[in-house]
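Margin note: ligand = NDP.
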Amino acid sequence: MKAPVRVAVTGAAGQIGYALLFRIAAGDMLGPDQPVILHLLEITPALPALQGVVMELNDCAFPTLAGVVATDDLNVAFKDVDYALLVGARPRGPGMERKDLLEANGAIFGPQGKALNDHAKRDVRVLVVGNPANTNALIAQQNAPDLDPKCFTAMVRLDHNRALSQLAEKTGKHSTDIKKMTIWGNHSSTQYPDLHHATVGGKPALSLVDQAWYESDFIPTVQQRGAAIIKARGASSAASAASAAVDHMRTWAMGTAEGDWASMGIPSDGSYGIEPGVIYGYPVTVKDGKYAIVQGLEINDFSRARMDATNKELREERAGVEHLFAK
Ligand code: NDP
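Resulting structure:
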């Protein structure tokens, strides 16, 4: 067994938290030889519920769980952490404008960014799941001036996995037969699931499906999958969101397979004409714990228009939260 690493999870008593913690503690995220110490953050009223979750974690007697810290103090939650999964966020209430939502989340992600800045390991890997995830990640990053901006990422992996699943079903193949899936942009309904570079069993995906299915079925189904699950289940997706968070962090820690890539929301460096600085979903390869944007992909007019639309939304979101950035 390796030396334990510290993994922070916020919103730990919520429904994604409940599906996530047991996967991390069981070794699904960092491997069966990597013990973890969980740092669980909750708001004060949720601490009693969190204690119940801690009791259950202990009752699993996981070989890879080396300790649990449960707290409502940011400075304790992020002390010396190697990984941070920021799940807790303010959900959109009835009649709430996007501006109010961004403001409410600024009050959460600004202080969390500062606490990470002050207490986390210098190479901490941060994944924001709580929505609006891309812009919440930007707020946290902009309040952590001493950390590398590349430490902050947002989750588009659930969209990526949903796209794999839809394409596998349509082509009668398994998701493991599909390579080079891409989600560009924001984790919102403007995201662009791109099949132009994807292959199924080595064949170009777009040679196996027709354009009408791609445009009118696949893209909207992936974009609106969250709403479909709420309608069917009476509650938002949780286990699949948790599983995607595990996938994102595992990829970041252990790398992408040769000949394949993953989608991650990462700070744009201007690649593909995207506004520098916004947290944008890109195809990435990961090696030795560092991600790199896949370069040189051909972008046609169909893709360009969709990539620009989601870029525009992210620029507008950023304009709405710039006053929350540390000076
Ligand atoms: P969930 O655990 O269901 O969701 C948490 C966040 O994940 C929400 O912002 C949700 O967005 C987002 N999310 C991202 N992707 C998905 C997806 N595919 N499906 C569903 N959600 C997704 O929320 P709960 O209300 O059950 O739990 C939240 C917990 O966070 C509560 O226990 C609360 O006390 C806590 N909290 C903790 C904070 C902290 O630690 N400082 C701050 C704020 C809250 P969306 O709203 O769009 O569904």
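Residues 10-11, 13-17, 41-43, 46, 87-91, 108, 129-131, 133, 158, 226, 236-238, 241 surround NDP (CB under 6 Å).
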